[in-house]
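Dear colleagues,

For the upcoming journal club I promised to circulate an example of a predicted protein-ligand complex. I picked one with calcium ion because it came up in last month's discussion. The inputs are reproduced below in full, followed by the predicted structure.
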Amino acid sequence: MRKLKSALCLAASLTSGSFAADQPQWGQAWSRNMISHERGLPDSFDPKTGKNIKWIAKLGTETHSTPIIANGRVYIGTNNGEPREAKHKGDRGVFMCFDEATGQFLWQLVVPKREEDPYFDWPKTGISSPATVEDDRVFFVSNRGEVICLDARGMTNGNDGPFRDEGAYMSPPTNSGAPPKYVIGAEITPASHRPPPKANQLQPGPTDADILWVFDLVADAGIWPHDGAHGSVLLHGDYVYVNTGNGVDNTHKRIRRPDAPSLVVLDKRTGRLIARDDEHIGPHVFHATWCSPSLAEVNGRPLIFFAGGNGVVYAFDPVRNPSPNEVLKLKRVFLFDFDPTGPKENVHKFNGNRREGPSNVYGMPVFHENRLYIAGGGDIWWGKNEASLKCIDATRTGHIATNVWSYPLEKHVMSTPAVNDGMVFIADCGRMFHCVDAPTGQQRWTHEIKGEVWASPYVADGKVYLGTRSGNFYVFKADREKQVLASFELGSPISGTATAANGVLYVATMSHLYAIQSKATP
Ligand SMILES: [Ca+2]
């Protein structure tokens, strides 16, 4: 009887909960594995004919963010290349919210650029951070390097606090709009936002976002922003964990904030700074701090995993008892040098060297069955070509000197791995897609693809979905034998990872967000 009951419970959970769910953060919570349990997803789609297209939403002209789906809404960062509202004109970071069922635009946060130097907030790149949603709170990192908490309902239920100055926040400074000029090595420091006088400020309307709190990583954590802020917030208990984005200045050879943190912890209710890393990573950051944190319980003990811009993977104890008066230092449990034979001092002299130099990590460390899977290597813009996928034993402590296995990639890697059914899927910027045996690191198969890959492969419904920077989209069978189910062009570069939620697949190109569903018609 008990057996029958548990079988029925299992059947019920398989038909309701497990296969149709929201995707409220980037990757699985919180292993960051790029897999989904959604079922019934199509093998292909075609925006031109409407085949398997549920709806299409227009974005800006550059979209480097991944769509996130929670509580009936879809969130994505983009730019203001196609203004949704006449009052918001010019280059901005934009964070949009759509209705999940219809694709109808609901509201947006429009963020002025940092204009002191283009390297603080690269022109036209918009907001790259994928959202993290819990209940009616939406967390992400703005193009200005601010960790932001929004109200999922927007302004429809009024302007909630403590933050209530949305008008000033979204108003660009007087004389804004000229393309930022810069001199390499000039003494330009990132400045705080200077809104125009009150009389000239924008008025928030029903399609503007409701900000609850803002934490400025530049002003409040002392970082030096570089290129585009890209953090994916991790929530654990009452705390927000996020990489800071600390990086080099516009010489690409100098760290101006060597003492700034690489990983910070904030109170999710207020945005107050609770803790930071104490690893002195800053001087060795080769380019910037791209990797977002992941988390897993290892033998009953929760650990935060994170890779610095120095190419070192760390595990930390989560924050337990924050102090009201001081910023705590995260306690390290282990470290693993991804590239032990790479240079450790004066790393910036290898800037522009494609043959030798240090490694860094763009994607996230993925936890699966007591192991961590990490892709890293030379920096795509300024570093060596060499890249690899490594597997380490996450149950170890102290200085982990050996990996379980290391698998060479073609050239530069930005993807986070997808680990599924004994296989690891990864794609690199050398235009190669890889299926690797998870236990041994042996190659199963590869496929030559068109375009560099900035996105992560995403496994759902027995398939692997992947878009490339040449605007090509691939659907592979998630199998030990190679089978290309579909390969087609979307006509616009793809940076974001595909996402599946509630039976629908979401794919964003630079300019459009597609909601894809079997047998749907727009
Ligand atoms: Ca507010």
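Two points we might discuss: The pocket of calcium ion is lined by residues 159-161, 163-164, 166, 210-212 (CB under 6 Å). The longest helix spans residues 2-15.

See you all on Thursday,
B. R.
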